Hints:
By secondary structure, the protein is mainly beta.
Amino acid sequence: QVQLVESGGGLVQAGGSLRLSCAASGRTFSSYAMGWFRQAPGKEREFVAAISWSGGSTYYADSVKGRFTISRDNAKNTVYLQMNSLKPEDTAVYYCAAAPVLTYYSGSYYPTDFDYWGQGTQVTVSS
């Protein structure tokens, strides 16, 4: 089992940057692929970025490609999301999640394919 705790959210002006962290417990962290999702008020949870268990492969939603970077440090049991050039439409609660394998279909990755979730961290981007 994997327990996940996100941190690093906050309030930032448009054009600014934030780095989210997700600390995992459990010795099996390095065997899981990891993802970041976000959910804005009144909207469904949507895929943001994902990374393979080794960190060798990364995947991004088109809306964040070129602005966000996902990375992981298996020695520290932590996955990161560096967010640059933030926009007001990036405002949401951001969640990290773990999956035994990444499954891509219908043009994205989906929350139902991730087994473990953190509690979320709020990111607010002001205009």
